[in-house]
Fold this protein.
Amino acid sequence: MARLILLITWFSIHTAFAQEVTLLFAGDAMQHQSQIDNAFRNNTYDYTTYFQYIKNEVSSADLAIVNLEVTLAGKPYKGYPQFSAPDEYASALKEAGFDVFLNANNHIVDRGNQGIIRTLSVLDSLDVDHTGVFRNKEEREQIYPLMLERENMHFAFLNYTYGTNGLNVLPPVLVNYIDKEQILEDIQKAKNLNADLIIANMHWGVEYKLMPNKIQKDLADFLIKEGVDLVVGAHPHVVQPSEVLTDSTGNISHVIVYSLGNMISGMTAPNTNGGQMVKVIVEKQDGKIQIKSAEYTLIYSHKAKEKGKLNYTIVPVGPAEKNDSEEKAEIELDTNTYLKMKQFAKNARAVLDKNNKGVPEYKPLF
């Protein structure tokens, strides 16, 4: 009996020390002119319909990360090719549950240094974490890598872009461009800061391509070799495959997501009317970090015309799908929208289910 009590006590103590953190990554949060125009209601910008169906999933994560692919440069608000979105958009993203905003992307210099500085100021005023772009060298040295703590685990967030559409940032403002020498220094700094997990958020690849290219693959290999644990990509505006790497014991050692696709946009090119969110669960037990799982869920950008306005809504595909045993889905869509969503999902799954390695689909909270 004494031996049994000791075993139960040992198990209870060790189980109690197991801590778990959920990371959720979402793709390109865009604001094309159609979105800006249609959000204007009652003399303000209203984004309440955008996130109503994914808010539970996003807010349930310990850290939810999104690529803010616009500037918050003030009026006049404009879409492509040089974005400036209303401040209310960033507020709505925060209200939806997003904790970390990524700024190193090809549109961050759309409104010059003034647009960058105002973007950072708006995000600071909202008290959200952000990274990838800095007012000056001193600020970068102080707050980069972005270090966040959850459940006694320390996460280092890195963020880089391939370019800024030929627009040059002017000193003293700094944008993180993909530069291996600089990245090596940043990874070492993350290690020196005792990061339990290093996450590289990369703005890379070729737009509209459903498979990663050699540059993406080589860069992912480089990042992992040098100590990055998670590599998460954006920019192609369509989903690309993901994979997990395992160690000699079969446990997950690294995760690579080549492209999350669009979270929401006004784009009309094939396969841009949706994207994926990727959920990674990390556990710490007895001081050891372990990536427990990586899964994806599909999201679809629904545009519904009402009283002359388009309501944009992110629809999680899983809860909106019907199967043979159900008469109704959790989210009911009109027939035309349902068929469009199913076509997007079919195309995305044709890529992901065939090419993903160890990253299955899951049904999100609703």
About this structure: The longest strand covers residues 288-306. The longest helix spans residues 335-355. The chain is about 30% helix and 30% strand. The two ends are 46 Å apart (CA to CA).
